[in-house]
What does this fold into?
Amino acid sequence: MLFKCKQCNKYTLTEQCLACKTNTSPAHPPKYSKEDKYAIYRRREKFSSIN
Ligand SMILES: [Zn+2]
It folds into this structure.
C-alpha cells in the first residue's frame, strides 16, 4: 500500500510521514489507465484517417 503526505507532497510506505509526522492518505493509483485510454483514441484516429 502506498501513502502520500499532503504536506510534503511525497509518497511513503508508512501511514505517518517520517519527515513532518503528518498522517498520510492512501495514494491514488497511477494514471497509466487514463493515458492508455488516450492512446487508444489516438490509434483510432490514425486508423480512421487511413480508412
Ligand atoms: Zn510529510
Notes: The longest helix spans residues 32-50. Residues 5, 7-8, 17, 19-20, 22 surround zinc ion (CB under 6 Å). The mean pLDDT is 80. DSSP finds one helix and three strands in the chain.
